[in-house]
Design brief:
Length: 825
């Protein structure tokens, strides 16, 4: 098929029967829309995404392991740390080529949700805690993929920031936080790149499931942002198409079974589903099939996998963050920073991750790589076997250590000039489907670091993880490299960075708190029914900088092997009086080629509404040879100075003074200038103008001047929302709803039976091989499932009607209470 005009689409629509239209609004199987050969409509295949192509072998259904090999690029956390849109676009192009070669017309990515909390199990799949980075890099990814003729699927709209009870939890978010943070990355990507599809998230947003949320899908996404592509549900997120179609969710994935089509036909006949809503969805689906089901995926071209592997390696180095690099006081390496490694220095490589790396996240994004480079191999090749010793330090399978393993590690460290310890988060510590309970490394990894640094102070700690960890040993270790999840070529990239062939090009796109306890979200209730975003705008560095809380490493931080001077800064107001341009000269003053990231933060000096201390509003990545310099110019448009006024429901640029800070991190300001802006339309949906005075609550102290001691209480949040909080209860015996997660039923016998059944079904569905690490976390992952997911998890053998019957039965069985007994509260 090829792209069609609207008249051609209308003509095709006219030829379809009701049954065919209904069928087109749900998957024919886990990955494809139905084909209708009678009128020449082919099936369209979708596939994960986002850092590599996951195409299960025929018959393998939703398997996460039994799939065709594909290049595993660094995950979004690593790409996010590159702050490099051009690089992310290149990766997108490679992903598009590989998707096309597998016949995949729509690649499921990028994920542009924000990392609201460092424990988010899926943080590895997202770019940043800041919407500017997530939006720019998300847009670059879409640009790259769609440039090859393959469509993208921007996910997961919206406020999908926790994996706990992810299928039904209600995210309660105030209007400003939604607009200024959680929707911004989606808005930017949609408006800049027109992704083929947007994926509606599992969770509820302010009381309505995202797939049934017409405010989100119709008013905002289509109405305000002009999105004209297909809204596809996250897999299993649609419960009732008679509700989700009118709300704006066009395509329900995966298939829902024939019964469900019959049900929808009845809804159409009775008028419960308006024909216009069905036709609008089918029109968009036909347009998608026409645009993306064409030549890109039909005329499959061979892919240069070797070139993609090299690109994956370059991207991994670009996202590697040098967190710390100090001289050692004594020993053979004394007096100089440890990295890059001195030529000729013998090296002890310690930690099983050096041989069996953690290089990607676990869950739906899991890629079967075309090959895997390990640090040990790559470093041995770079340095020669005689210079490199290895000790595993811990068991990769069960994450334990022993006196013998620690003794071997200490011995290897002692007998080498430098020790490199590779630790991090094993798959069971961090996965899609469940959040982490804490930020600690496995105890065996902690003990290994302590043992090695005691044996040899010249120790470099290398971290492989998808999100921040606590670093209790930080003061005792001179060098720390955050390698994140580097993809299949991560080992080669890491070796090149350690020996200095490549530079560590990354800067943190998230804050590393000292401990989870210092993070505001750690003190907030999470479930069973709601997750309250009480901190509002104070997400990530917006919180830490506002309260002056010490952090282990600030947002934006990252060291270089070379040095840069930033001079000749200037700041001018744009001709419209509502924007500004900042310029400066960046010079590489060291002896190596390298890159630097200029970060621009805006501080609103006086504001009618509360604002964070500062917010990232512009950035530029500059690569320079030694002695070279470049003039960097960063434009801040009116939106960079504006806030969302919840009383006016529009963007407002309040006239007044703004400080513009040029910085190396949110805590390392290099230059600051001040400007006065007259205030003008901020380019919001309805182009609202200046504000005369705020018409919303402004004086809530927790938000005006947040403090760690005070925190964010339910009462403060209610005042901010302007209405009472929805009850955060449920899941008592007899009170189960479609949104009750199995974890909240486990205290009843029937809940335990369901948990066991779901675990068995889920392991079958994802095709986990015997003994795969996923087995160990499967119980926690399935515990997040709710009744709405039963048809998907059971591959439609438990239909929607059956699920409803089951829910009634379960309520009946578990709800029997003796007279006079009280409900738990
Ligand atoms: C994930 C999506 C993914 C889909 C298909 C869902 O569980 O949330 O990100 O694209 O599965 O695998």
């Amino acid at each position: 098929m090829t792209a069609m005009t609207s008249a051609e689409i209308a003509a095709l629509l006219g030829q379809l029967t009701d049954a065919e239209k209904v069928a087109l609004t749900a998957g024919a199987d886990a990955w494809s829309t139905p084909a209708i050969p009678r009128v020449g409509i082919p099936a369209l295949r979708l596939g994960d995404g986002p850092h590599g192509v996951r195409k299960p072998h025929d018959g393998a259904g939703m398997s996460m392991f039994d799939s065709h090999p594909a290049t595993c690029f660094p995950t979004a956390v690593t790409l996010g740390s590159s702050w490099d849109a051009a690089l992310v676009q290149e990766v997108g192009e490679a992903l598009g080529r590989e998707a096309a070669s597998h016949g995949i017309a729509v690649l499921l990515g990028p994920g542009v949700n924000l990392k609201r909390t460092p424990v988010g199990g899926r943080n590895f799949e997202y770019f940043s805690e800041d919407p500017l980075i997530a939006g720019r890099l998300g847009a670059a990814w879409v640009r790259g993929v769609q440039g090859t003729g393959v469509g993208a699927s921007l996910k997961h709209l919206a406020a999908n920031n926790t994996e706990q009870r992810r299928y039904g939890v209600n995210a309660v978010v105030d209007e400003r936080a939604l607009r200024e943070l959680y929707l911004t990355s989606f808005e930017h990507t949609v408006m800049q790149e027109r992704p083929a599809t947007v994926m509606a998230a599992y969770n509820q947003l302010n009381g309505e499931h995202c797939t049934e949320n017409s405010w989100l899908l119709r008013d905002v996404l289509r109405g305000e942002w002009g999105f004209d592509g297909v809204v596809v549900s996250d897999w299993g997120a649609v419960w009732d198409r008679a509700v989700s179609l009118p709300a704006g969710n066009d395509l329900a994935m995966p298939g829902l079974g024939r019964d469900d089509d019959e049900y929808l036909l009845r809804a159409l006949a009775s008028g419960a589903l308006a024909r216009a809503d069905l036709d609008a969805a089918v029109t968009r689906i036909l347009d998608l099939v026409g645009r993306y089901g064409g030549p890109a995926t039909r005329d499959r071209k061979p892919v240069d996998l070797a070139a993609h592997h090299r690109l994956a390696r370059r991207a991994a180095a670009a996202g590697t963050v040098l967190l710390k690099n100090e001289p050692v006081a004594n020993g053979s390496a004394a007096g100089r920073a440890l990295l890059p490694l001195a030529a000729g220095a013998s090296v002890a490589v310690i930690g099983a991750f050096a041989q069996e790396p953690r290089f990607q996240g676990a869950g739906s994004s899991h890629v079967v790589p075309t090959r895997v480079e390990t640090l040990l191999e790559a470093l041995t090749e770079a340095r020669g076997a005689a210079q490199v010793r290895y000790a595993s330090g811990y068991d990769r399978t069960d994450n334990t250590t022993s006196a013998a393993l620690l003794a071997q590690a200490a011995e290897a460290a002692r007998s080498s000039a430098v020790a490199i310890v590779v630790v991090g988060l094993p798959e069971t510590f961090e996965t899609e489907g469940v959040d982490r309970p804490h930020l600690r490394l496995p105890e065996s990894h902690e003990r290994l670091v302590a043992t090695v640094v005691a044996a040899n102070p010249a120790t470099v700690v290398v971290l492989q993880n998808g999100s921040p960890v606590e670093l209790p040993w930080l003061d005792s270790v001179p060098a720390v490299v955050e390698a994140y999840l580097g993809g299949q070529a991560g080992g080669g990239a890491l070796s090149a960075v350690l020996v200095g062939e490549a530079e560590p090009g990354g800067r943190l796109a998230e804050t590393f708190p000292v401990s989870y306890a210092t993070h505001p979200v750690s003190a907030m209730p999470n479930g069973p029914a709601t997750v309250e975003y009480r901190e509002s705008l104070y997400v990530g560095y917006r919180y830490f900088d506002a309260v002056g809380e010490p952090v282990a490493f600030p947002f934006g931080h990252g060291l270089s092997y070379t040095s840069f001077a930033w001079t000749d800064a200037s700041l001018v107001v744009g001709a419209d009086g509502a924007s500004a341009v900042i310029e400066l000269l960046v010079a590489n003053t060291g002896e190596r080629a390298g890159s630097d990231v200029v970060q621009v933060y805006v501080h609103d000096v006086e504001s009618a509404l509360f604002r964070p201390e500062q917010e990232l509003r512009g950035f530029a990545k500059v690569s320079l040879m030694p002695g070279e310099s470049e003039r960097v110019s960063i434009t801040l448009d009116s939106r960079a100075f504006s806030y969302w006024d919840p009383a006016k429901h529009s963007w407002v640029l309040e006239p007044g003074r703004f400080d513009v800070r040029v910085a190396r991190s949110s805590r390392d300001m290099v230059w600051s200038g001040s400007i006065g802006l007259a205030g003008a339309g901020a380019g919001g949906p309805d182009g609202a103008g200046g504000v005369e005075g705020a018409s919303v609550p402004t004086g809530i102290p927790a938000y005006r001047s947040p403090s760690r001691e005070r925190g964010f209480t339910a009462g403060d949040f209610e005042r901010l929302l302007g209405h009472p909080l929805p009850p955060n209860t449920g899941a008592w015996p007899g009170q189960y709803t479609l949104d009750t997660a199995v974890r909240d039923m486990r205290h009843t016998p029937v809940g335990r039976i369901l948990a066991r059944y779901l675990k068995r079904e889920a392991i079958k569905t994802i095709g986990a091989p015997e003994g795969a690490p996923v087995d160990a976390v499967a119980a926690d992952v399935v515990a997040q499932l709710n009744f709405r997911m039963f048809p998907t998890v059971s591959d439609a053998t438990v239909s929607r009607r059956r699920t409803e019957q089951l829910l009634r039965l379960v309520n009946l069985l578990s709800g029997i209470r003796l007279p006079g007994t009280r409900r738990r509260s």
